[in-house]
Amino acid sequence: MGLTAESSTPEKDVQDLEKGCEATALSSIAEVPSQVEIDGSRIPSGSSSDHENNGISKISTNQIERPGVLEKTLSLVRTREPNIDPGPPPDGGYHAWLQVALAHFVIFNTWGYINGFGVFQSYYTEALNRSPSDISWIGGTQIFLLFFIGTFSGRATDAGYFKAVWSIGAIIIIFAIFMTSLCKTYWQTFLAQGICMGIGSGLIFCPSIALLATYFSSRRSLAIAITASGSATGGMVFPVVVQQLLPKIGFGWTMRVIGLITAVTLAPGFFFLRQRLPPRRTGPFFELQAFREPAYTLYAVSMFLNFWALYVAFFYIGSFGRNVIGLSQSDSINLILIINAVGVIGRVIPCYISDWKSGPINALIPCSVVAGAALFGWIGVNKEPSLYAFSIVYGFFAAGIQALFPAALTSLTTDLKKSGIRFGMTLSIVSFSSLTGSPIAGALIALRDGDYLYAQLFAGVSMFLGLAILMLSRYNAVGWKLMARGFPIVIRFWHISA
C-alpha cells in the first residue's frame, strides 16, 4: 500500500508510515507529504531529522526512477485485484455459470464463425472469381492468428490486463465484420475477414477460457464442454443467416446483420466477465527442454498432422456438395449446419468418457481413428444420402479431437507447472498446420481440375499419420497397457499453471 493523502485501511497506518519513503519511490512522488490524514486527523509525517532519529534515511529524489508513459498507461488498464489468494474455485453458483454463458458466446463468435466458413468458401469462390486455395487462405489465416495470438493474450490476462485485451479484441472483431461488408476485392476480404478477424479472435478466445477455468474444479469438464459447444452453435447460426438473407438483401447487408449479432452477443461480456485471480507473474513462453521428452514431442507432431487435416471437410464440404453431388446452394449450406450441429454432442460425450473412464489420450485415439476413416470414406461419396452420413460421422469425431486436444496434452505433463507453457508451445505449432492445411487441399483440388480426390487423400493420410504418432506418444508415456489412463489429469489450460 502506498502513502497517500487518505488511508483506506486504518489498521495498517503504522506500516504505511514506516514504509512511506519506499511507497513514495514506487508511486514516483518526489517528496514525502508533510502531513497524512488518519481517521480524519492530520498528523505531521516528520522532518528529515525525525526520519534520521527513527532510523529511516531520507531518499534522494535524484535516485527515484519515474515510470514511463507506457508503464503509466498499463497501470491504468491493469485489473485492480487485491494480491491475495481468492481461495478454491466456487465450482458453481450464479457468477460461475454466468461466466460459462458469456464464454459460450465468445466461442460462438470466434470458433463458430470459423466452423461456418464453408458457406463463405462457396460464395467467395464465385463472387471473387478466385481459386478454392486462395479463398481458404482467408479462413486458414483466421485460425492461425487465433491460435498464435492466443498464446500472448493469455499471458497478458495472467498479468492483469484481461479487460483491456478482451475489449480491444471484441472491438476489432466487430470492426472486421462491418469492414467485410464493404469489401469488393480479394485482398480487402483477406485483410478484413482473415487478418483483422483472426487478431480479434485471438485476443478474446484464450483470455475468456483462462477466466472460465478459474471458476471450476470438479465441474470443469462440464463447464468447458458447454463453452466449447459455442463453436457448434455459431457454426449453425452464421450459415443460416447467410442462407436466408444473402439472396434477399445481398452480401453487404447480410454481413452487417452478422456484425449486429456479434455486437449484441459480445456486449454482455464486457460488463460481466470478471477476472477472479489476482495478477501474477508468468513463466517463459518456451521450454526447449520439453522437446527432450519423447512423449511431448511426438504428441506435438501428431497434433500438427491432425490439425493439418481437421478443417479440410469443414471448409470444402459445401462446395463438394454443389460441384460434385449437384446440390443447390441451400442444400449445400445444410451440410455445413449438420457437420456443426453434431459437434455439440461430439464435444460433450468424449470429454465425459475421458473423465469417467478412459483418460484423454485413450478417448482421443478412437476419435482420430474414426475421423481418419471417414475422410477416406469421403472418397467414395457420390450420392446425397452418403454425403449427409459423412457429415454426421466426421462432424462428431472431429469435434471430439478439438475438445480432447488440451486435456490429452496435460496428461503427458507430470509437472503441472509446465503444462501451461507446453500448451502455449503446442498452440503455436498447430497454428501453422491450421493455416496451411486447407489451402494445400484447395491447391490439390485445382490440380485435379475440380476433382477432390487428392485433397481427400491428403486429409486422410495426414489424420492417420497423426494417429500413428499419437499412439507412439502414448507408448512413451504409459507403455502398451490397454487400460492405462496415463497421468492423472483434469482439463487445464496453459495459463493456469504458467
From TrEMBL:
Pfam families with a match to the protein in the record: MFS_1
Residue stretches of biased makeup (Basic and acidic residues): 9-20
Keywords: Membrane, Transmembrane, Transmembrane helix
Signal peptide span: none
Record field: compositional bias (Polar residues): 44-62
UniProt region (Disordered), positions on chain: 1-20, 31-62
One term under GO cellular component: membrane
Main location: membrane
GO MF assignments: transmembrane transporter activity
Topology term for the membrane: Multi-pass membrane protein
Entry's transmembrane regions: 96-114, 134-153, 160-178, 190-215, 222-241, 253-273, 294-317, 332-349, 361-381, 387-409, 421-447, 453-473
InterPro entries named among the record's database cross-references: MFS, MFS_trans_sf, Proton-linked_MCT
SUPFAM superfamilies listed in its UniProt record: MFS general substrate transporter (SSF103473)
Cited PANTHER family: MAJOR FACILITATOR SUPERFAMILY (MFS) PROFILE DOMAIN-CONTAINING PROTEIN-RELATED (PTHR11360:SF130), MONOCARBOXYLATE TRANSPORTER (PTHR11360)
Homology family: Belongs to the major facilitator superfamily. Monocarboxylate porter (TC 2.A.1.13) family.
Protein name per UniProt: Major facilitator superfamily (MFS) profile domain-containing protein
Origin species: Arthroderma otae (strain ATCC MYA-4605 / CBS 113480)
